[in-house]
Design a protein that fits this description.
- The model is unreliable at 261-382, 914-949, 1045-1063, 1169-1177, 1295-1318, 1451-1476 and 1526-1535 (pLDDT under 50).
- The relative contact order is 0.06.
- The protein is of the alpha+beta class.
- Strand 36 and strand 37 form a beta hairpin.
- Helix 13 packs parallel to helix 17 and helix 16 (503-520) packs antiparallel against helix 17.
- The longest helix is centred in the N-terminal third of the chain and has 37 residues, at 391-427.
- The protein contains 36 helices and 59 strands.
- It is extended.
- Strands 16, 18, 19, 21, 23, 24 and 25 form a 7-stranded mixed β-sheet that branches.
- It starts with 7 loop residues before the first helix and ends with a strand.
């Protein structure tokens, strides 16, 4: 009977002990590393006290502490990740392999008619138990694993040990009291600190050690310091001793069970953990690679073994092998008998994938059984530990632990127990007693019942709360073996936790109270079994903490077995089995079986049944040897007892597991047992078993007969025909994982996409622009090679392609079956040869030495698969069925893992005929082979062929592709010569980054101008850091990227979240209620847009496996239709790579855009009068904006548009509303409607910064709602800059720059320092330039096909360059440009006219207005003439001085008004009420002339006289202007030639009403 080596009491004492943190300095670790150990590893073998110690309880009674074990850990030790914990548990079981089955004699027991061989021990269970307890993460609901003390270790080799001690103390204090990290956890705030001075006896200075130690005792108390002397043997003497004793074992090594296994041992052990993806199936032949190590090859041709090929993976029949699928609740699923052979199926693919991830070699992690794994030494000395430590050093280490425990730790714990007891006793008052009594009577009795079904309502205790103080006292007492005090404290805490419904604390108290009661050992206190059962149930159901439930089961079962309660222990083991952990379920099922056989009346059949279940779970966990042993144990019970189906099942599984473990003799014997007696299997199954037996036997015979006869050449097979010119090579990974909804990968280059020449040229242009921008040159660098990713017959294959090490090369072959019968092609793979070349390190000593050529041909011929995976891993296709006259493309890939030159020579495969199946065969085989996943065609075909395959032959074909015919020279033209085709000869370059781009919620349909937000995730899947990430696109105006730290909205699939995501595209601010302060002006540097955009990376690079998410904004194009956006992602490696300088990734997005709105705008100069003060700078504009709803009939899903905001972008103008009380409701425009809006544009209050390198623009906005969009922020600002980009122009600029200077402005107070602009024409033309762009932000309310309402947002841009000129966004068809005749001789008049400004410019130099009283009363009976003072305000709109002439000569009023009305259609018609125009006349100066400085106002006083009442138009004043001539700067000049003056635009009607006294 299998028994544990430790008793239950010893197991409990070793599982729980005082946990001590060890904090070492670097110099101390260096001393320990001389022994291939860390400081913690060096101390662990001596962490158990060999002598008795004593401690007093709070009442003063002395208790003996025996075999106290300290748990030493690095202070910075962090809990392992769940995946790593599973790997470590798997490895712990895998290390403890059972002996061979035929040699495992064990204990022979006789139960009735059964003679059973049972192992004497189960070491793998004890190892699993110890590792599990060591890896258990400390929790806040208990203090049993929290640090109670801390050792500070410094060596005497340190320059200042005392200062280092102080630093270590500060570090520990920071971690305990300041750091927010959840680990490490401390038992009490003021833990016990111990200071250790480590001294090297061979290399250290004795005087310094003594001096430092005396200082330590002076600074710290003597009982907290220790001088530890180690390394009494020098390093040279240690190496000599090791060399002399390699063959003997006279050197004690107490560290072997506390440190990691060596790499060689791990390699051997990891090979026993199966590789499901590469090792599936049974082999054809087995070749001998060693005296005892058989290697299985050619696993694909296994058609004669079993109808289910995938069952030959690492595992036995999965749970689905023994489950009959039934409909119903999954929680109450019915598990059928596991021995029913007729429903054998393969295990679930999800568990296979999870095992693959957990089945990788653990050599990269040095913490297999040890939480402080250090460096793995690789020298011979690494095989030994403690080489520099003598036996005296061992005694010193043992004495040090004794001194630390007896003189330091135990007195400290005794003091802490006494303090906690006094504190808890002081807090017990009458109120607490009454409150506890109340809870006891009214709620305490329901605690256990509520813990089973209730929720954890408590648990939020303060650290110094009485409940936690009681638990802390109980844990301290338990650690120092004061079990009676611990039981009392746990019992008290259990009651308080139960009343507070803190179920995690409650379960922990119950668990430890039960263990304390057992450790008391007194018969008067019975073991509370119900405590442990309630704790396990609470952990599992209420707290959802299976780890602590597992710990409780481990404790409970050991206690139950110690008390002889094997049935109860078996039930506890079975209770913890589940689908979450195969290895745990397997071990517990095996222990339950041993409990059944160890009962007073052994239950043999239950033992056998649970051993089968354990073997099945071992198989799922990849533990083949354990699975085989379990099935052998069960076979002893079922063999020869009439259980034929059960015996068939066991024999079949044993044969398969033996075959997978390369034990062909045992496999043959197991399969032979399936045919030795009259079987109850159906005929098809018998045929399958027979073929399996023949196949295994044939391979065994072949291995024994052909030993040493190695085939060196490949047989060329005529079938199938390979269309070699159609061979294509893909240098990227064609396989993509399945992404969630709304997530798409970058389209990249795949076999499904073949670009036409035009597209290839466009992609090449984008790549060239990205290269030139990245290098900062206008020309392509020397040695530039385009990054081709798909090679075929139309690409340039004259040079070898470049492939990055570690990335797959996929070859597409077109197979043709010229026959009319089916062909079965199995084990299809590529043949290659590889020449390793190190491009980074050149062999300078022997440069002529040729590297060895490696090929997989010999391995394929010898049926040694995956032997060269460390050089080049080869993918194989298990089986392809080619129907008659069928073409089928297949994809094969190889992955090089070293740099060098790879040559793909051909393909290798096995060819066989496909037998016709009857309907019965098909149903039986398919159901048998793929019950779990019937929708997988590949698995179905694989399973069918396994059952019906016949003798196959092995061979292959060469892939010698003929290159293009040469036609460059005369010799080539006169003869038939072909160039090389090197598409199958890639050069493997050093590691490079590999970019993976995922788009989240990228739109496919947009309205014109609609802005949608998306998220782009960039991941570096390569092995080198990534830098210089650029995006080159043919339409950069359609998208923009945000900063990588910008938060993104992770919208859910619901409709509300979609609306929220649409509305949150822009950044909004709350509008202020008053507009007296004017609009908000934001200044932004002008940004030039090019085809190439740089994507910001954190820190300038993206490390391997690094990932960033960047918001991406997409704007619908202004023109409706279907648009393709080509994005080429360019990136480089941060590490120098001479072979490959950059890489690219292609993505094509298709967007369908539909009509939304159109804009029409005009900017007119306002005629309002200017104030005379100097603060009123510049004129103002009136901006008319017409918005049309372009929604068509077929776009009826769009309900209406609303205008939320109009923003202005200019370096001069600021937009404002005409009315101070702007409407707070957004104007809405329904289908077919239009709306006109009028705004006022004034000079910016804040002028852009004088920066000659950059032009700055001012953003102002007029919002119609309660919120204002920040138009100067992303993405509104970005799309404005992109709206000015012309995709047809090739732009290579990347950084924002400006080549035009901002026009200067002058204050009128600086007239004395005015400098005239040299270029007069330019200065005059600038006065009619508007130079502003309107950004219209709108919302569209749409209804989708399902009837849900959505709100879409977008923006349109319209730019007004010239005042008075109407512009529109409506797309118009351009007329063909008229070609004027070419003139050889220049026209002098035309050249002269080019130097003069146009009449349109000269007529808008000035802006003027009249200021007067609009109504005046006058008594004409008293005075016949009425005089009205009028002020003419004139403003110079140019940046140069202008000569102004004002004429007020009398002229016909009516004719003037008619002339004005005819010249300006927009003016209002005038109906004069005066009887005669002679009743009005100007008096005073008829003509006034003056020089008006740049941007300066002038007020001219005028007087109008009226002789009769009426309504008069004063807008008959003429204002003329011209550029100043020589001497015009003299303000006293009163005359001059009239030529050159241009009449300025006339004023609108300026009416005045003269009211007579009689009227009033």
């Amino acid at each position: 009977m299998a028994q544990c080596t430790q008793s239950a009491q010893e197991f409990v004492q070793n599982a729980f002990g005082p946990t001590v943190a060890v904090l070492c300095s670097h110099d101390a670790e260096v001393l320990a590393q001389k022994n291939n150990l860390s400081v913690v590893e060096m101390l662990r073998p001596f962490s158990c006290l060999t002598n008795e110690a004593h401690i007093r309880d709070p009442s003063g009674q002395i208790h003996t502490v025996r075999n106290l074990r300290l748990i030493l850990n690095e202070m910075n030790h962090q809990p392992q990740a769940p995946m790593l914990m599973r790997k470590m548990l798997q490895e712990s079981v895998n290390r403890c392999q059972p002996p061979p089955v035929n040699g495992n004699r064990g204990n022979v027991i006789t139960v009735g008619s059964y003679d059973l061989q049972i192992g004497s021990s189960t070491a793998w269970y004890e190892t699993y138990r110890d590792v599990f307890l060591q890896l258990l993460t400390p929790s806040d609901h208990e203090f049993i694993q929290h640090y109670v003390a801390c050792m500070h270790v410094v060596s005497t080799s340190h320059a200042d040990p005392m200062d280092q001690f102080a630093k270590l103390s500060q570090q520990q204090h920071f971690l305990q009291h300041t750091s927010k990290s959840p680990y490490p956890k401390w038992l009490v705030p003021n833990i016990f600190k111990y200071y250790v001075l480590l001294h090297d006896n061979t290399d250290g200075e004795e005087e310094k050690a003594e001096a430092v130690y005396q200082s330590m005792k002076t600074t710290y108390s003597p009982h907290t310091c220790h001088l530890l002397r180690i390394n009494s043997r020098s390093l040279n003497a240690a190496e000599t001793t090791i060399l002399n004793s390699e063959g003997s074992s006279n050197m004690p090594d107490p560290w072997s069970q506390y440190v990691n296994k060596s790499s060689e041992q791990l390699d051997t052990l990891d090979s026993d953990i199966t590789q499901p993806t590469d090792d599936e199936g049974f082999p054809d032949r087995v070749m001998e690679s060693g005296p005892e190590n058989l290697e299985v090859t050619n696993p694909s041709d296994t058609s004669l073994l079993t109808p289910d090929s995938t069952d030959d993976g690492p595992n036995d029949p999965s749970p689905d092998d023994v489950i009959i699928p039934t409909q119903g609740n999954s929680l109450n699923e019915v598990i059928a008998h596991p021995l029913d052979q007729s429903i054998e199926t393969k295990r679930s693919r999800e568990e296979l994938d999870s095992f693959n991830s957990a089945d990788t070699p653990l050599l990269t992690n040095n913490k297999i059984l040890n939480s402080e794994g250090g460096m793995q030494p690789t020298s011979k000395r690494s095989k030994f530990h403690g080489a520099c430590l003598t036996l005296s050093d061992h005694d010193r280490l043992r004495n040090f632990i004794h001194e630390f425990s007896v003189r330091g730790l135990l007195p400290y714990i005794e003091r802490m127990i006494r303090i906690l007891s006094d504190q808890l006793a002081a807090r017990k008052g009458l109120h607490r007693f009454m409150f506890s009594a109340t809870k006891k009577w009214f709620g305490g009795k329901q605690a256990e019942k509520a813990a089973v079904t209730g929720l954890d309502m408590g648990g939020k205790y303060l650290r110094e709360s009485p409940e936690l103080q009681m638990r802390r006292l109980a844990d301290l007492a338990f650690l120092v073996q004061l079990y009676e005090l611990a039981y009392t404290s746990y019992h008290t805490a259990k009651r308080d936790f139960g009343n507070d419904q803190a179920w995690a604390h409650y379960a922990g108290a119950l668990e430890m109270a039960a263990v304390s009661a057992f450790m008391l050992g007194s018969m008067q206190k019975a073991y509370p079994t119900h405590y442990m059962e309630t704790a396990v149930t609470t952990y599992l159901n209420t707290c959802k903490r299976p780890q602590f439930a597992t710990r409780a089961v481990l404790m409970s079962t050991e206690i139950l077995k110690a008390r002889g309660m094997y049935a109860e222990a078996a039930m506890e083991f079975i209770r913890m089995t589940g689908e979450d952990s195969d290895i745990r379920s397997a071990i517990f099922l095996e222990q339950a079986a041993h409990c059944f056989i160890n009962m007073r009346q052994p239950m043999v059949r239950k033992y056998a049944f649970h051993m089968i279940l354990a073997g099945h779970r071992f198989s799922k966990a990849g533990q083949r040897k354990h699975a085989l042993r379990s099935y052998w144990q069960a076979l002893q019970v079922y063999k020869g007892k009439g259980w034929t189906l059960a015996e068939d099942h066991i024999n079949f599984t044993i044969g398969r597991q033996s075959f997978n473990l390369k034990r062909l003799e045992n496999a043959t014997t197991a399969y032979k047992h399936l045919l030795t007696y009259k079987s109850k299997q159906p005929p098809d199954q018998q045929n399958a078993f027979f073929k399996d037996y023949l196949s295994v036997f044939k391979q065994l015979v072949t291995m024994q007969s052909q030993e040493g006869n190695v085939q060196t050449t490949f047989s060329q097979l005529p079938l199938p025909v390979i269309n070699k010119p159609s061979t294509r090579v893909l240098l990227t990974n064609p396989r993509k994982t399945i992404l969630p909804d709304n997530h798409i990968f970058a389209t990249s280059v795949t076999f499904d996409r073949i670009f036409d020449p035009t597209e290839r040229e466009e992609w090449q242009d984008l790549e060239e622009m990205a290269v030139m921008v990245a290098t900062g040159q206008r020309n392509l660098p020397a040695g530039y090679r385009p990054n081709l990713q798909l090679l075929h017959g139309k690409t340039d294959n004259s040079v070898s392609p470049l492939v990055v090490v570690g990335e797959a090369v996929t070859v597409e072959l077109v197979l043709e079956n010229p026959l009319k019968v089916s062909l079965t092609i199995s084990d299809l793979m590529l043949r290659w040869k590889f020449t390793p070349v190190d491009y980074e390190h050149v062999n300078k000593e022997n440069p002529e030495q040729q590297p060895a050529v490696v090929s997989n041909e010999a391995d394929i011929l010898n049926e040694k698969r995956n032997q060269l995976d460390e050089v080049v891993s080869t993918e194989s296709i298990h089986e392809i069925v080619l129907a008659g006259s069928e073409y089928k493309p297949v994809h094969l890939s190889v992955t090089p893992h070293q740099t060098g030159e790879l040559h793909i020579l051909g393909v290798a495969y096995s060819l066989s005929a496909q037998q016709l199946l009857t309907t019965k065969d098909e149903i039986t085989t398919t159901d048998f082979g793929n019950r779990e996943n019937p929708d997988s065609p590949q698995k179905d075909s694989k399973s069918i062929s396994r059952g019906v395959g016949v003798i196959s032959v092995q061979g292959g074909q060469d892939l010698d592709i003929q290159g293009p015919r040469l036609n460059g020279t005369k010799v080539e033209r006169c003869s038939v010569m072909y160039g090389p085709d090197r598409r199958l000869d890639p050069v493997v370059v050093p590691p490079m980054p590999l970019l993976e781009v995922i788009f989240n919620s990228f739109p496919s349909t947009l309205l014109c101008g609609e802005v949608c937000s998306s998220v782009v995730e960039f991941t570096n899947k390569g092995f080198s850091p990534l830098q210089k990430l650029l995006v080159s696109s043919n339409h950069p105006e359609m998208f923009s990227f945000g900063a990588f730290h910008t938060p993104t909205n992770q919208s859910q699939p619901g409709k509300d979240s979609a609306n929220q995501s649409k509305a949150s595209v822009y950044r909004t601010v709350q509008c202020s209620g008053s507009r007296e302060g004017g609009c908000v002006e934001s200044t932004v540097d002008k940004c030039n847009i090019s085809h190439v955009t740089e994507i910001p990376l954190p820190g300038g690079s993206l490390p391997p496996e690094g990932s960033i998410s960047i918001p991406m904004f997409v704007r619908g194009p202004d023109k409706s239709g279907i648009h393709e956006i080509n994005m080429l992602f360019y990136y480089e490696s941060s590490e120098e790579n001479a072979k490959m300088r950059h890489r690219t990734l292609h993505h094509t997005a298709v967007i369908h855009s539909s009509n939304s709105i159109s804009l029409t705008a005009t900017a007119l100069r306002a005629h309002s009068g200017e104030r005379q003060d100097a603060e009123a700078t510049g004129t103002s504009l009136v901006v008319n904006l017409d918005i049309d709803n372009m929604n068509q009939v077929h776009d009826s899903h769009i309900i209406e548009f609303s205008i939320g905001q109009v923003s202005c972008v200019s370096n001069t103008w600021a937009l404002d509303s005409l009315d101070a009380n702007t409407q707070t409701k957004e104007p809405k425009i329904s289908g077919g409607e239009s709306q006109r809006m009028c705004f006022k544009a004034t000079k910016c209050r804040q002028h852009p910064t004088e920066n000659p390198g950059k032009e700055q623009l001012v953003f102002t906005s007029v919002a119609f709602g309660k919120q204002r969009v920040d138009s100067s922020a992303t993405p509104c600002r970005d799309f404005f800059f992109r709206s000015t980009f012309d995709p047809s122009k090739r732009s290579l600029e990347l950084t924002p720059s400006s080549k035009t200077a901002t026009p200067s402005t002058m204050s009128p107070t600086e007239e004395t320092s005015v400098t005239l602009v040299t270029d007069t024409k330019t200065a005059l033309e600038d006065c009619i330039k508007a130079g502003l762009t309107l950004i219209v932000l709108w919302k569209a309310f749409v209804v989708d096909e399902e009837g849900f309402h959505h709100t879409l947002v977008g923006q349109h841009h319209i730019t007004m360059e010239t005042m008075g000129k109407e512009v529109t966004t409506v797309q118009t068809t351009r007329r063909p440009r008229e070609v004027t005749p070419l003139k050889i001789i220049k026209d002098p008049e035309t050249e002269l006219a080019k130097k003069e400004p146009s009449a349109e410019v000269m007529g808008q130099l000035l802006k003027y207005s009249l200021q007067y009283s609009e109504v005046k009363e006058h008594d004409f009976t008293k005075q016949r003439i009425c005089t009205l003072p009028v002020s003419l305000n004139v403003y110079n709109c140019t940046s140069t001085a202008v000569e102004v002439a004002i004429e007020t000569a009398d002229q016909d009023n009516t004719s003037a008004m008619a002339e004005r009305a005819a010249s300006q259609p927009d003016s209002y018609p005038l109906r004069a009420t005066s009887t005669s125009s002679t009743a009005f006349s100007w008096v005073g100066h008829i003509t006034q002339k003056l020089i008006l400085p740049p941007h300066a106002p002038h007020q001219a006083p005028l007087h109008a006289c009226f002789s009769a009442p009426g309504v008069y138009n004063l807008a008959n004043t003429k204002v003329l202007a011209r550029s100043p001539q020589e001497g015009a700067g003299d303000p006293k000049r009163s005359g001059g030639e009239r030529s050159g003056f241009v009449l300025q635009q006339r004023l609108p009607p300026s009416l005045v009403t003269i009211v007579g006294a009689s009227v009033s």
